[in-house]
Amino acid sequence: MEFEPWMLLVFPLFFGMGWLAARIDIKELLSESSALPQSYFQGLNFLLNEQQDKAIEAFIEVVKVDPQTIELHFALGSLFRRRGEIDRALRMHHNLVERADLDHGKRQQAIFELAQDYLKAGIFDRAESLFRELEKTSYAKPAMEFLLELFQKEHDWLKAIDAARRLEALSGQSYSKLAALFYCELASDEIAKGDTAAAHGHLQQALSVYPGAVRATMMLGDMAAGGSKFEEAVAIWKNIEAQDAQYLPLVAERLLNAYRSLDCEVEGIVLLREYLGKYHSLDLMNVVFDSVLKNEGPTAAYQLVRDELQRNPSLLGLDKLLEARLLEMPLERRADVELVKDLVHKRTRNLAMYHCGHCGFKARQFYWHCPACQAWDSYSPRRSEETGTSL
Questions:
Q1: Mean pLDDT in the chain?
Q2: In a domain, 45, yes or no
């Protein structure tokens, strides 16, 4: 493309347009700034100098002079709450709720924010009352979500169940699995008080709202076994295979103990070996291994683990294999194998953990409710090595 003389005129033209636009923007900015109340700048100055209480008073004056700055109140209130300065957040949002000239939508927003402040402050009765005010507003769903959180903190499981049902209606999403876990919490409370009839009723309700509620089935089996109804307990626990077979390892030891109480341990071992053949599990293998070792000796236990390792290699399985091999060997030949077993065993201690899929917290026991992040049903019933979360 050749240079044309007229192009020299283009550059001054663009420069002039940019200068004019900048002048217009500056004038508009200066005009808007001069329109803001003086207390606005005082508030900013106090805020920058970490004088939050004086800043709050200044910004309250801003809203009185210019209602258009209400959004500033909301922003600052949320900022204070996130920083843990709950008293200041309460002052900001309470001032908004008390304003008579606030329109309907902004008032609902102020109530919603104030309720969150009370929730974070642990003043649950005030928080609940304010969230309840929003049940028939556009804030109904988020308010009910906070109520569900609140009732869990209070361990008020009946209210939590009601909130879960309401959320299901509001969102169209299923909360039946969560409601079933709340019924199990109710049952645990009744068991602690010795009211097994009430506990049984809650567990049946859990299965009614969510037929796949494994925890309810486990607890019903525990109650039957606790009452020496071992045949009933076995029959109940067997239902877990149809609900979710990956939870069978959690009741493997209980099943075997129930069969022992019925003088049918061999039958119990046969059942667990059948489960092990269908559903690979390190916990199942451990239970079967210990029982075979006790009843049939180290050679049979060694063969059991060897066959399982060929199907599903694992360090935890290798640890059991070495344990069985040591029991077979004469004392004078055990030193080298014991050294290897000790090394493997130290490594497997970190692998034999349950893992929260929500926050990553690891524990040696299984939880239905994560003690770290408070998530429900977030633990896999399989150990870290099996789920690939051992690192």
A1: 83
A2: yes
CA–centroid distance for 192 within its chain:
25
Span 322-331, pLDDT tens digits = 777 777 777 7
Domain boundary among 133, 152, 187: 133
One-letter amino acid at 84 equals G
Q: Which of 160, 130, 123 is nearest to 145 (CA)?
A: 160
Q: Of all residues in the chain, what percent are helix, strand and coil, respectively (each to 5)?
A: 75, 0, 20
pLDDT per residue as tens digits for the range 105-118: 999 999 999 999 99
The answer to whether position 145 is within a domain reads no
The whole-model pTM stands at 0.80
Spacing of C-alpha 176 from chain mean position: 16
Q: Taking Cα atoms as reference points, which of 149, 150, 145 lies closest to residue 123?
A: 150
Range of the domain at 371: 354-391
* C-beta separation of 236 from 221 below 8 A: yes
Q: Which residues pair with 369 in a beta bridge?
A: 376
Q: Domain ends where: 79, 106, 133?
A: 133
Q: Domain tally for the chain? A: 2
Q: Which residues of 144-156 are buried (b: 16+ CB within 10 A; e: fewer)?
A: bebbbbbbbeeeb
pLDDT at 148: 98
Provide the pLDDT confidence category of residue 321 given band limits of 50, 70 and 90: confident
Task: Kindly state whether residue 24 falls inside one of the protein's structural domains.
Answer: no
The answer to whether the beta carbons of residues 288 and 304 sit under 8 Å apart is: yes
CA 116 – CA 93 distance, rounded (Å): 10
Kindly list the distances between the CA atom of residue 24 and the CA atoms of 11, 35, 99, in Å, as whole numbers in the listed order: 20, 17, 37
Tell me whether residue 78 is in a domain: yes
